[in-house]
Design brief:
By secondary structure, the protein is α+β, with helices and mostly antiparallel strands. Helix content is 37%, strand content 34%. It has three helices and five strands; from the N terminus they run ββββααβα. The chain has helices at 45-52, 63-71, 81-100, and strands at residues 3-11, 15-24, 29-37, 40-42, 75-77. A hairpin with a 3-residue loop joins β1 and β2 (15-24).
Amino acid sequence: MVETIVKSMKVPGGKLLEIQLDYDPNECRVVKLYITGDYFAYPPEKIDEAEKSIESRPLALDLLDIVRDKLSYTTLYGVTVDNIVELLREAIEEAMEKCRQ
């Protein structure tokens, strides 16, 4: 069984950022991460690498460091790495809370 958490925010300047975290609540593992929105990334494949870097990993806040590291050499227009990490933190914390139930 897979559950989904979607978090979105309008960053200063009016750009939209959305995180979709698919996770397995029985195993408390990430299934898939999607980072989408109204922004540009160069090189764009770094977003894909960040998404894939946490697949199949246990839900934990240290996943934020992995994503931050993957995006550290990415130029973002319209959002920041901190925006992405903040939204992902919210999604991970919510998923972790649901896993504890």
